[in-house]
From TrEMBL:
UniProtKB keywords: Aminoacyl-tRNA synthetase, ATP-binding, Cytoplasm, Ligase, Nucleotide-binding, Protein biosynthesis
Catalytic activity: tRNA(Ser) + L-serine + ATP = L-seryl-tRNA(Ser) + AMP + diphosphate + H(+); tRNA(Sec) + L-serine + ATP = L-seryl-tRNA(Sec) + AMP + diphosphate + H(+)
Binding locations of ATP: R258, R259, E260, V274, H275, Q276, F277, E347, T348, H349, S350
Keyword presence, Protein biosynthesis: yes
Protein encoded by which gene: serS
Annotated site location: Important for serine binding: T382
Aminoacyl-transfer RNA synthetases class-II family profile domain mapped to chain residues: 136-407
InterPro entries with a match to the protein in the record: aa-tRNA-synt_IIb, aa-tRNA-synth_II, aa-tRNA-synth_II/BPL/LPL, Ser-tRNA-ligase_type_1, Ser-tRNA-synth_1_N, SerRS_1_N_sf, SerRS_core, tRNA-bd_arm
Family: Belongs to the class-II aminoacyl-tRNA synthetase family. Type-1 seryl-tRNA synthetase subfamily.
Associated pathway: Aminoacyl-tRNA biosynthesis; selenocysteinyl-tRNA(Sec) biosynthesis; L-seryl-tRNA(Sec) from L-serine and tRNA(Sec): step 1/1
Organism annotation: Sphingomicrobium sediminis
Coiled coil: none
Subcellular location, record wording: Cytoplasm
EC number in record: 6.1.1.11
Name the UniProt record assigns to this protein: Serine--tRNA ligase
Length: 420
């Protein structure tokens, strides 16, 4: 969300953001509604002041004056009530439009309609060249008994999987390892539920635009989140944090659920795009200062890159375009890991700065150094998400005999065995 004052003072910047993020939004209607609501509120206040003024006159009035005074007070109160009633429809429409407003994107983001406009800003590591015909992760798992991708679909439907044996163990170890690594950066580990109320999704930004991608528990008015970001955004909603409580740094672990409604036919084989997965999420609430946000953005990105470097996975960092970064982002850098069987890099991490767009929706505020209560800034980034990260791990480190030789950091995790 943006502040209405910002919108009034920077209509062109907001109009450009709406265009560059492919948002359908009538900004003139929003501003007109804001003006109508503002003048109606001023009129209501004036009527209420008039009614109170007349009531004050009542006690000293003569018996002849009282009926007229009572009539005028009643009329003022009635008119105020009618205006108030008319306001509720306008206020609902105004709030709905405010929730659809995009954040102003970073000036260095490529302007474009979708991921085709994304730019590679750096590449780390070299994709392996095999002197044998490499297998894809599904074949590797089948050869080693590391997964069930067929029987389970009778139980749970498409885009579900079972990990088995040492691969199942590796996933658990990877999550603990990611938590520990991020804890080492001063982040507090916290496990959060995927279950959350509708409000939490509005505050985080998933609703109203991406409701379709979210599982709903209708009988209970609850939903299943696709990222710990939902719970972590709602955790301090409505509080006023003290400046010495900032930055709030969470390493959030949660199961993640996604309907993938818009992904029919994409990544249907294997572990890249599934309905349920696990993730360690880096989440920051910091002071409302662009330089501080930029510092945390770089740290979040660096922490994820450090994990990829330890896993010896070749990757590239992307500057995400205005059309691909999503409504609430000021800036988004995805990290894409090399997937040999596809011969290309695929997104495994997503690092975002939102400034106060999310904090305004979630009413996340703090008392700044001058004692003023202001909206905070928030950021989030993937530390590690599985099973998607297993794809580059298995495929990049496979050997000619169909085994997987773990990089040093991981074979220490797995009790010293150098093979999975
Ligand atoms: N359907 C899915 N199946 C498997 N992994 C997924 C799926 N959707 C997302 N992920 C993983 O979760 C990571 C983060 O997802 S994201 O939507 O891009 N970003 C977020 O959720 C942010 N909160 C940062 O983590 C992705 O980079 C990917 O590694």
């Amino acid at each position: 969300m943006l502040s209405i004052d910002f919108i009034r003072e920077n209509p062109d910047a907001v109009r450009k953001a709406i265009a560059d993020k492919n948002v359908e939004l009538d900004l003139d209607r929003l501003i007109a509604l804001a003006d109508e609501i503002k003048s109606a509120r001023q009129e209501i206040d004036a009527l209420r002041t008039e009614r109170n003024r007349i009531s004050d006159m009542f006690k000293d009035a003569s018996n002849e004056e009282k009926p007229e005074l009572g009539k005028r007070a009643k009329e003022a109160g009635k008119k105020a009530g009618e205006l108030e009633k008319g306001l509720s429809d306008q206020t609902d429409e105004y709030k709905a439009l405010m929730l659809q407003l995009p954040n102003i994107p970073y000036g260095g983001a490529p302007v474009g309609p979708d991921e085709s406009a994304n730019e590679v800003i750096r590449t780390e590591g070299t994709p392996p060249s095999f002197d044998f015909e490499p297998l894809d992760h599904v074949a590797l798992m089948e050869k080693n008994g590391w997964a069930d991708l067929s029987r389970i679909t009778q139980v749970s439907g498409s885009r579900t999987y079972c990990l088995k044996g040492r691969l199942a163990l590796l996933e658990q170890k990877l999550m603990a390892w990611a938590l520990e690594e991020i804890m080492g950066n001063g982040f507090d580990p916290i496990t959060v539920p995927a279950i959350a109320r509708e409000d939490a999704f509005i505050r985080q930004g998933q609703f109203p635009g991406h409701r379709e991608e979210t599982y709903e528990l209708e009988k209970d008015d609850l939903f299943l989140a696709g990222t710990a970001e939902v719970a972590l955004t709602g955790l301090h909603s409505g509080e006023i944090l003290e400046s010495d409580q900032l930055p709030v740094l969470y390493a959030g672990y949660s199961p993640c659920f996604r309907r993938e409604a818009g992904s029919a036919g994409r990544d249907v084989r294997g572990l890249l795009r599934v309905h349920q997965f696990v993730k360690v999420e880096q989440y920051v609430i910091c002071e409302a200062d662009e330089a501080v946000s930029a510092k945390w953005h770089a740290r979040l990105l660096g922490a994820a890159e450090k994990l990829l470097q330890a896993m010896e996975i070749p990757y590239q960092v992307i500057e995400t375009s205005t059309g691909d970064m999503g409504l609430g982002k000021y800036r988004m850098n995805d990290i894409e890991s090399w997937v040999p069987s596809l011969g290309k890099y695929r997104e495994t991490h997503s690092c975002s700065t939102l400034h106060d767009w999310q904090a305004r929706r979630a009413n996340l505020r703090y008392r700044n150094a001058e004692g003023k209560v202001v909206f905070a800034h928030t950021l989030n980034n993937t530390a590690l998400a599985s099973p998607r990260i297993l794809v580059p791990i298995l495929e990049n480190h496979q050997t000619a005999d169909g085994r997987v030789k773990l990089p040093k950091a991981l074979h220490e995790l797995m009790g010293g065995d150098e093979y999975l």
